[in-house]
Amino acid sequence: MTPSARTALITGASAGIGATFARHLAADGYQLLLVARRADRLRELATQLTEQHGVRCEVFAADLTDPAAPAAILDYADQQDLDIDVLINNAGLSGKTAFAETEWEALAGEIQLMVTAPTELVRLVVPGMKERGWGRIVNLSSVAAFAPPAASLLYTGIKSYVLNVSQALNMELEPHGIHVTALCPGFTRTEFHDVMGTRDAADHLPRILWQQPEAVVVEGWAAVMKGKPVCVPGVVNKISAAAMKPLPTRLGYLAGKTFNPFKNG
Ligand SMILES: NC(=O)c1ccc[n+]([C@@H]2O[C@H](COP(=O)([O-])OP(=O)(O)OC[C@H]3O[C@@H](n4cnc5c(N)ncnc54)[C@H](OP(=O)(O)O)[C@@H]3O)[C@@H](O)[C@H]2O)c1
Asked: In angstroms, what is the span from residue 12 Cα to ligand 1's centroid?
């Protein structure tokens, strides 16, 4: 381990894109602080990465729907003498039931997990990054942020927030040596669709629409290092984002309504 190694805080590191970022950054020599709810998975990954790459790898189990979680994570980093140089705001999921049939607690949890917690984490790590004159922040948005709103789901609205705010933060922070990138993947082979309960439908989609998480991470990491505020990984996703963006509002609305996942029940 290099004592002067930079440290990356990765949320949602127990699976999918987050675990892939952990592998990628460990291979690059970054120390890691891994966060998710499933501590056993985090510990297993941490042990593996330390053995393979000789990097320090700490684990903090937290439920990011808990408003106290972001401050608790940073307190833990302080106790461990870790300055956060890289933040990968990745933890997320999509709601799976219609708005009016979903308890407020679950909706509020989605907002806390994918809007409030990542925003607070940025606010907590930025002063240290500014002081050191270097920082890299990747916020997981989605190609859905360019798509028409999907009926009932908060997801497209949430990911649009992430896309918009990441650009705003990049404008403010770039002069301080801090790059902020909204990473906007399309269909990526992770546990996301298992959690959402859409695995069967997703498996019927054409293979060309899918990316492996490694491809998403490699392109996303290269983008933040180059200072690109937005990264849509993969050619197919770039084409679909570009095609959806210029849709007139009325047409976008109709498209979203046509693909309403809840219209049959
Ligand atoms: N896969 C796709 O097709 C796709 C496309 C576009 C964007 N994305 C975005 O990419 C990000 C990563 O998703 P993924 O595809 O890698 O999904 P995934 O394989 O299901 O991983 C999601 C990660 O988020 C963590 N997480 C979920 N709820 C959490 C909570 N309450 N507190 C803390 N951690 C929590 C999970 O850990 P625990 O369960 O252990 O807590 C897991 O590590 C998400 O923001 C997602 O919206 C995914």
From this structure: 6
